[in-house]
Amino acid sequence: MWKAIFFMLIGMALIPVGDAASKLLSNNHGFHPYFIAWARFAIGSVLVIPFISQNSLKVFRNPLAWIRGVLLAVGISAITVAVSLENLASVFAVFFVGPIISYILAVVFLKETVNLQRSILLFLGFCGILIIARPGFGFTLGLGFALLAGTTYGVFLMLSRLAASQQDPKGLLISQMAIAAVITTPMALLYWPIQNIETLGLITVSGASSMLGNLFLILAYARAPATRLAPFVYFQLIGALFLGWIIFDTWPDGWGMLGLGLLIISGFGSAFLRR
After folding, report:
1. Strand intervals (E) in 56-212
2. What distance in Å separates the CA atoms of residue 34 and residue 46, rounded to the nearest whole number?
3. Structural domain that includes position 231
């Protein structure tokens, strides 16, 4: 279990790095969110090719691989659009319905054990997100995209648990990246930007971080139930807050620190539960 937690925390730290690079591309260089999403998938696919074997390619015969690829394409595209339209706090608050959806689906479809204590801890983590984000009640198009991204992410996490028990992790990674890249190619061609050395570097960082983050997520779900790992998804926000401080010179206030405390209690409290 502790190895799964370790892999999960690494993955949750790497994914926000990709998001930060994407934000720089969008805000500072005017790149369209759909191109950024495609670039993350394409770079990730290229980087993982040297590590795959012929056995890894058998994953493309599994319908779960195609479903996960479609979900990833929709989710990443939606979250990049949401961030371009709304402030990060409101987007994160809506997006993090994903772990709750994953938890419920794992109980219903994977028959994982319902644990009242873990359910409370997951809800506590979600409350931490709300305290940090403190979103308004006005529902906009941007928040609609964030809700779509969170919903697809929740289903994706549940299917990652199911697929990780059936397929090679490297095969799952290349399949989800390649399928998502193919799906998003038409939109990328439509919004293809002029690039330079700086933007190519940011694209590479975004794609590599996303690929490695998802690899560690797959490794984690191969070692522990989705219901036990769901609270740790919230740790993405800790990485995002740290990067916001380093790169964008933002830092949470007192309420934000309270929310972070709830996230830590939620994640590590879940880890210490025996069942």
Report:
1. none
2. 19
3. 2-272
Interatomic CA distance for residues 46 and 207, integer angstroms: 9
Render pLDDT for 39-88 as a digit per residue (tens, 0 to 9).
999 998 888 888 777 777 888 988 989 999 999 999 999 998 887 777 66
Q: Which long-range contacts (CB under 8 A, 24 or more apart) does 219-223 make?
A: 219/4, 219/7, 219/11, 219/164, 219/169, 220/4, 220/5, 220/7, 220/8, 220/11, 221/4, 221/157, 221/160, 221/161, 221/164, 222/4, 222/164, 222/165, 222/169, 223/1, 223/3, 223/4, 223/7
The token pair that represents 186 in the structure block: 């038409």
CA separation for the pair 34, 63 (Å, rounded): 25
**Beta-carbon neighbour count of residue 62 at 10 Å?**
16
Strand stretches in the chain, DSSP E: none
CA 184 – CA 36 distance, rounded (Å):
10
Structural domains counted in the chain:
1
Question: CA 23 to CA 137: how far, in whole Å?
Answer: 24
